[in-house]
Design goal:
Layout lengths: L1 E4 L5 H10 L3 E5 L10 H8 L7 E6 L4 H11 L3 E4 L5 H4 L6 E7 L15 E6 L25 E4 L7 H8 L3 E4 L4 E3 L2 E2 L1 H27 L1
Parallel strand pairs: 1-2, 1-8, 2-3, 3-4, 4-5, 5-6, 6-7, 7-8
Antiparallel strand pairs: 9-10
Length: 215
C-alpha cells in the first residue's frame, strides 16, 4: 500500500514526509483550496526532493494545456483531478492521471468503468470542500472487487489506518488534513505517529506472511 501525503505547501513538511516514508507528495494548484500553492513555490520544493519520490499536482476543472505546462514547470510525475473531467480530457494530459470521485450515499460505482485511462481515487463528499475535509465516507459501500484497485482518501488517520490496512487493502492512501496543525502546515508529531503505525502494520503483516509460508 503506497502512501501519498497531500496539501504540501513548504519544504520542511515535504522533506519530513519523504524522509519518514511517503511514496508521493501532493501539491494543490486549485485556487479555491486552503492549501493552494503557486507553481514556482512547488517547483522550489520538488527540486529538494529525491527523484524517486512521486510528485503529484492536484487540479480542478483546469485546461489540460495549462496542466501540461505546470507539469513541466514543477517537475510533476502525476496529476490528480477533482472536478468533472472527462476521459477525453484526461487523454490530453502528458503524465499519468489520478481521477478523484467524491462518494455520496447513492454514489454510482459504475461510473468508474468509464475511466479506464486513470487511477481511481475515492474521497468523501462535502458540499463546501472538494477534498481535505478530514471526513470519512461509508467504506463498506466500496465493491469488494474494487478495494485493491483504488486510492482511498478522506479522514484516514492513526486511529483508523488499521481498518484500512486489513479490511480494505487499497492500492494507495491519500492523507492530508489529519496530519495538520492547520491547512497547509503538517504537525511533525502526527506525521511521525502515523508513519510509525504504518511501519508497525507492515511489520506485523510481513511476520504473518512468513509464518504462513513456513508453517
Amino acid at each position: 500500500m503506497k502512501i501519498k501525503i497531500c496539501g504540501i505547501t513548504n519544504p520542511a513538511d515535504a522533506l519530513l514526509c519523504e524522509s519518514i516514508g511517503a511514496d508521493a507528495i501532493g501539491f494543490i494548484f486549485y485556487a479555491g483550496s486552503k492549501r493552494h500553492i503557486m507553481p514556482d513555490e512547488a517547483a522550489a520544493i520538488t527540486n529538494k526532493l529525491n527523484s524517486f519520490t512521486t510528485k503529484v499536482g492536484v487540479f480542478v476543472d483546469e485546461n489540460p494545456v495549462l496542466i501540461n505546462q505546470i507539469v513541466k514547470e514543477v517537475g510533476l510525475n502525476m496529476v490528480q483531478l477533482h472536478g468533472g473531467e472527462t476521459p477525453e480530457e484526461i487523454s490530453m494530459i502528458s503524465v499519468p492521471v489520478i481521477k478523484a470521485f467524491r462518494v455520496t450515499d447513492n454514489f454510482d460505482f459504475n461510473i468508474l468503468t468509464h475511466y479506464k485511462n486513470s487511477f481511481l481515487l475515492l474521497d468523501s463528499y462535502d458540499k463546501e470542500e472538494l477534498g481535505g475535509t478530514g471526513k470519512t465516507f461509508n467504506w463498506q459501500m466500496i465493491p469488494e472487487q474494487l478495494k485493491s484497485k483504488i486510492i482511498l482518501a478522506g479522514g484516514i488517520n492513526s486511529d483508523n489506518i488499521d481498518y484500512v490496512f486489513h479490511k480494505i487493502k487499497p492500492q494507495a492512501i491519500d492523507v492530508s488534513s489529519s496530519l495538520e496543525d492547520y491547512p497547509g502546515k503538517k504537525n511533525k508529531e502526527k506525521v511521525i505517529q502515523f508513519f510509525n503505525k504504518i511501519k508497525s502494520l507492515r511489520s506485523t503483516y510481513a511476520d504473518n506472511d512468513e509464518f504462513k509460508l513456513t508453517s
